[in-house]
Amino acid sequence: MNIPNYSDVERAHKIVQKYAHRTPVLSSVSINQIVGVELFFKCENLQKVGAFKFRGACNAVFSLSEEEAQKGVATHSSGNHAAALALAARMRGIAAHIVMPENSPEIKKKAVAGYGAKITFCQPTLQARESTLAQVIEETGATEIHPYNNFYVIAGQGTAAKELIEDQGEFDVMMAPVGGGGLLSGTAISSKHLLPGCKVMAAEPAGADDAYRSFHSKKWVPSENPKTIADGLLTSLGERNFAIILEKVDDIVTVSEESIVGAMRMIWERMKIIIEPSSAVPLAAILEKKVDVQGKKVGIILSGGNLDLGKLPF
Q1: What's the pLDDT band for 311 if we cut at 50, 70, 90?
Q2: What is the per-residue DSSP string for the chain?
Q3: How far, in Å, CA of 173 to CA of 253, rounded?
Q4: Is the full-model pTM beyond 0.85?
Q5: Are residue 128 and residue 218 in the same domain, yes or no?
Q6: Is 214 an active-site residue?
Q7: What band does 104 get if pLDDT is binned at 50, 70 and 90?
Q8: Which residue out of 48, 53, 108, 192 is catalytically annotated?
Q9: Does position 79 have pLDDT exceeding 90, yes or no?
Q10: How does pLDDT run across 6-49, given as a tens digit for each residue?
């Protein structure tokens, strides 16, 4: 199994920095006072397509050979990865074939179509998504770009933590949310290489705790009927991602839905930025005192800001 290392993140960054935003790092005096810790937020909610996913998609698309690129790229996704891949493909001038469950949010369907992707709708089951994608790939010869269990995607996601460390210096703790593990595995690769003494911590909703159970039992546990407002964190860990997480991540903790909503609201109110529930999960872990961060300098990757403003949880 091909696992990226830090030199792959550096290679990815040469590509990604041409097309992606170098997102700002923000901090909040009032949040720091509430938690008694110095927090630095890497604002991937201000990234293109509104999420860190653009980094990985961009690296994967621009790493294809000319021959592969001519046939386009394909994936199944109802969310941020679909939009990210569609935009990256448009920038390279190639086709993006996206398989989306027919019950995907209208705002996501519009976004993906707006970036010029060719959408094929399917039943909202994993089996339907995978079989429809297989059919599309057979017909088009497109290269599948998995949302997280992909060498180039992981390397691309690692560029966010790399930039955070370059811009703000040393950290004692680096935090990210975990769903499929693309952001967390990339963050761990960069953080442990640049700051070997830095602890890498992940947080996950208690109602979707497959990564927590997988990490602590050292055996892969699938995500079954997850229930959480953090819709970006519903998937099972990818195989590559899990291998990296077991080797490089120090701990994974879980948080309640109430804490996620509270942390999300705190960031909206105090920092005046829009984040989606998944982004609030690391701060929720700090508010719940699930991680030992007292007197430490902490970096948090805010994963994205895509949510339906008509359905806010507060």
Answers
A1: confident
A2: -----HHHHHHHHHHHHHHS----EE--HHHHHHHTSEEEEEEGGGSGGGBTHHHHHHHHHHTS-HHHHHT-EEEE-SSHHHHHHHHHHHHHT--EEEEEETTS-HHHHHHHHHTT-EEEEE-SSHHHHHHHHHHHHHHH-PEE--SSSSHHHHHHHHHHHHHHHHHH---SEEEEE-SSSHHHHHHHHHHHHH-TT-EEEEEEEGGG-HHHHHHHHTS-----S---S-GGG-SPPPHHHHHHHHHH--EEEEE-HHHHHHHHHHHHHHH-----HHHHHHHHHHHTT-S--TT-EEEEEE-B----GGG---
A3: 14
A4: yes
A5: no
A6: no
A7: confident
A8: 53
A9: no
A10: 999 999 999 999 999 999 999 999 999 999 999 999 999 999 99
Residue 95 and residue 202 in one domain:
no
| CATH classification at residue 86 | 3.40.50.1100
Write out pLDDT tens, residues 232-290: 999 899 999 999 999 999 999 999 999 999 999 999 999 999 999 999 999 999 999 99
Residue 53, number of CB atoms within 10 A of its CB: 33
CA distance 48 to 41: 17
DSSP class per residue in 224-259: -S---S-GGG-SPPPHHHHHHHHHH--EEEEE-HHH
Nearest to 244 by CA among 172, 114, 154: 154
Task: Tell me if residue 104 is catalytic.
Answer: no
Task: Kindly state whether residues 307 and 165 are assigned to the same domain.
Answer: yes
Given 63, 77, 78, 278, the catalytic residue: 78
Whether pLDDT at 310 is above 90: no
Do 129 and 258 share a structural domain?
no
Q: How far apart are CA 185 and CA 178, in angstroms?
A: 9
The strand pairing partners of 176, in sequence order, are: 202
Q: Say if CB 73 and CB 98 are below 8 A apart.
A: no
Range of the structural domain that residue 182 is part of: 6-52+151-311
